[in-house]
Amino acid sequence: MPILFSTIDYASPEYDECLALRYRVLRAPLGLDYTEAQIAEEWEHHHFAAFLESGELAAYLMLEMLPQRVAKMRQVAVKPELQSMGIGSGLVRFSEEWSKQQGLLSIVMHARKEAVPFYERMGYEVRGKEFLEVGIPHFKMEKTLNPKN
Fold it and tell me: Residue 22 pLDDT more than 60?
């Protein structure tokens, strides 16, 4: 199944569709919503999406730029009916390649406990102990992108 990976613009129709996917996959199951302030903060982040050949949205992730050439991966969501098909890992790899082209040194994240094995298979390492975020267990994870820089 051909998948198109791309960056998308904040406040675009694609972004709005991604926001709905994120709500469905990440927030609604926890009884959470997004505030206007949270969404407004995302204008300065970088947004990535995966689309099926038909144009249907399949997955989303966001990178927040941190100091010292580090990005924080956030809000990774794949449509439930399309999970375990390699779309999420493809989107993560796409964002990593983009990050390398930007000269970033590493990507960090707060991964939900159940997602840790997925990220470990992609070369991310757990940093520290389990902690609660949005009421559920998470781990800080990191992957070095450009070790020679």
Answer: yes
